[in-house]
Automatic annotation (TrEMBL):
<dbReference type="InterPro" id="IPR012337">
    <property type="entry name" value="RNaseH-like_sf"/>
</dbReference>
<keyword id="KW-0963">Cytoplasm</keyword>
<keyword id="KW-0233">DNA recombination</keyword>
<keyword id="KW-0238">DNA-binding</keyword>
<keyword id="KW-0540">Nuclease</keyword>
<dbReference type="GO" id="GO:0006310">
    <property type="term" value="P:DNA recombination"/>
</dbReference>
<dbReference type="GO" id="GO:0005737">
    <property type="term" value="C:cytoplasm"/>
</dbReference>
<feature type="active site">
    <location>
        <position position="141"/>
    </location>
</feature>
<dbReference type="GO" id="GO:0000287">
    <property type="term" value="F:magnesium ion binding"/>
</dbReference>
<keyword id="KW-0255">Endonuclease</keyword>
<dbReference type="GO" id="GO:0048476">
    <property type="term" value="C:Holliday junction resolvase complex"/>
</dbReference>
<dbReference type="InterPro" id="IPR020563">
    <property type="entry name" value="X-over_junc_endoDNase_Mg_BS"/>
</dbReference>
<comment type="function">
    <text>The RuvA-RuvB-RuvC complex processes Holliday junction (HJ) DNA during genetic recombination and DNA repair. Endonuclease that resolves HJ intermediates. Cleaves cruciform DNA by making single-stranded nicks across the HJ at symmetrical positions within the homologous arms, yielding a 5'-phosphate and a 3'-hydroxyl group; requires a central core of homology in the junction. The consensus cleavage sequence is 5'-(A/T)TT(C/G)-3'. Cleavage occurs on the 3'-side of the TT dinucleotide at the point of strand exchange.</text>
</comment>
<dbReference type="GO" id="GO:0003677">
    <property type="term" value="F:DNA binding"/>
</dbReference>
<dbReference type="InterPro" id="IPR002176">
    <property type="entry name" value="X-over_junc_endoDNase_RuvC"/>
</dbReference>
<comment type="similarity">
    <text>Belongs to the RuvC family.</text>
</comment>
<dbReference type="GO" id="GO:0008821">
    <property type="term" value="F:crossover junction DNA endonuclease activity"/>
</dbReference>
Length: 193
């Protein structure tokens, strides 16, 4: 499975692509940040992020996209920019019909470090270890994007298998119900004869 992790941000939007499956070593494909200038109008900054994400999707063709779920912080200007960048990430993935998963920061921290309260340095160190890198990706937004992709490979695969099993079970239930209705209708038709 190839996953594009996106750590949304208006000034620095982290992007990282990881290949792998549960139970096997993961591989770094690429990592970077999409940067915008605070001097530009907000609409232009969002267009820059959209174009950057589209380019990543074109180049790496991921199977899924993992985006950090936005949560309220004390600085409303920061949360607004993050939410706007997150919305762009969701739209570009949806346009391509890619599955998108939202992971909370504490979920990502717990997945890669074992603690939902890990700091940025601990997350960076664990990303470095998990992907067998020489040094933590810089800036932290890049490491966070990789942590999102790792989390999705590890957790998203299980979620997808559970959803697939649920769909199969539902289809079997519906087929059994249809067969029961058909048998009841046949029995009713025979009794009228």
């Amino acid at each position: 499975m190839r996953v594009l992790g996106i750590d949304p941000g208006l000034t620095r939007c982290g992007v990282g692509v990881v290949d792998g499956t549960v139970g096997r070593p993961l591989t770094l494909v690429d990592v970077n940040v999409i940067r915008t200038s605070p001097a530009e109008p907000i609409q232009q900054r969002l267009v820059t992020i959209e174009r950057g994400l589209d380019a990543w999707l074109d180049e790496f063709e991921p199977d899924a996209v993992a985006v950090e779920r936005v949560f309220a912080r004390s600085d409303s200007s920061t949360i607004m920019g993050t939410a706007q960048a997150s919305g762009i990430a969701l739209v570009v993935a949806a346009r391509r019909g890619l599955p998108v998963a939202l992971h909370t920061p504490s979920e990502v921290k717990a997945a890669v470090s074992g603690s939902g309260r890990a700091n940025k340095a601990q997350v960076g160190a664990m990303v470095t270890r998990i992907l067998r890198l020489d040094a933590p990706p810089k800036p932290a937004d890049a490491a966070d994007a990789l942590a999102l992709a790792i989390t999705h490979v590890w957790r998203g695969g299980a979620v997808a298998r559970i959803e697939e099993a649920r769909i199969i079970a539902q289809a079997r239930i519906e087929a059994a119900q249809k067969a029961q209705r058909k048998a009841a209708a046949a029995a009713a038709a025979r009794s009228r004869q």
